[in-house]
Structure formats: C-alpha cells, structure tokens
Amino acid sequence: MPVSRELIRQAIADDLILDSLPAEFDGLGQRYSGKVRENFSLASGERLIVVSDRVSAFDRVLGTIPFKGQVLNGLAAHWFETTASLFPNHMLAVPDAAAMRVVECEPFKIEMVVRGYLTGSSSTSIWRAYEKGERRFCGHTLPEGLQRHQQLAANIVTPTTKAAKGDHDVSMGRDELIERGIITPEDFDAAADIALRLFAFGQRHCAAQGLILVDTKYEFGVDEAGQLVLIDEVHTP
Hints:
alpha+beta, Phosphorylase Kinase, domain 1, D-amino Acid Aminotransferase, Chain A, domain 1, 2 domains, 6-stranded antiparallel β-sheet, 5 helices, globular
C-alpha cells in the first residue's frame, strides 16, 4: 500500500531535532545550548548530550539537515568505542540515536586540531596561512614549494582557542597558549601526545576502508578524579 507524502513528512518530523526539544527535556538539569548540541548537567554528576540536526560551519549555524544529529552521534559513539583501548573517554551510554550520556568533565579551553595535509578553507586553516606566505604555523615551520592538498611530511598539532558563542576560534601555538595561561605545559603535552596517537590510529583505520583522514580536532577535559579524558566527539565529518 503506497504511503502518502504527508505521512512520510510527519514521520521524519517526529524524528528530527531541529531548533527546539520536546517538553520532556524540561527539568532534566542545567541546560547549555551550543551551536549543534544541547547539554544537560544531571544531578548524578553526569551529562546528557543531545545532538541536533543543526549545521555549523565557520563558527555559525547555517541551517539543518534531517537526521544529521543521529549520524554524528552514531559516528562519535563508534569511535569512542573503537579508541577506548587507547585512551579513556567520557562516554557512558547511548540512550537514544541522537543522545549520549557522559561523565561530567571540566573541558580544556582549546581544541587539539591535528592535520595531515596542507588544506582547509576556514580562517584558521593551515592552507589559508600558507597561501598568504606564512611559513610558521602554530609553532611549526613549513617548507617552501608545498602545493594545496599535499600531504605533510608528518602529522602536526595546530591548536585553536575555543571561542565564545558568536566569536571566532583562533589558531595558536603551544608557547602562546601557555604564556596566556590558557593551558599548562603538562596538560598541553599530554593532550597533544594522545591527539597524535588517536589521529594515527584513525588514519590506519580509514586507510583499511579506502579512505583518508585529512584532519580533525580532539577535545579533552578533566574528570572529577583529575584524570585526563577525551570528550565531545571523535573523527566526525
């Protein structure tokens, strides 16, 4: 029996998480709304993260894509499970296709961006800097003569600040981040080391599927016991 277009639209609408959440979420706990995710601090010392269908690029929300939240959440859950033997992460459970229950952590105020290629289009990308003639990027010296999309001689960590909502992230090297008091040398070095290890693992995993992992970002935080933990998401597009 054919299904009407109206029924299909209604079924999709019932599963989407666009700009608002159902009333059942009211009273869950203190709420923080990010560009894509809705966060609820639970009384148990845990956090519920609901991934919406909003699309964010260049530090702003551009619109929505049906089921994007479920896809992102599923990918993050897969990679958290796959990399758990390499490093602890905050994931506890996936109670819904678009939601994840995690350990509450105090996040670092930086994103550990790892790059394997000279590419990118945002204001913080390594290619934009190289194109303008910059040969020093986040503490790394880049040789002359590189081409756009060329693979780098080695994977490098090029951190960015975590800008407040409405502001823009800024690329910044290790020394400047430490000098500004944004992160300690010990925390930076530990996070950078695991970021490179996670990236190399991701590259091997992707290569086995005929894919390349060009670049990505990792976020870290500290749990109640003071342990460094991988948070947010992993290897999502």
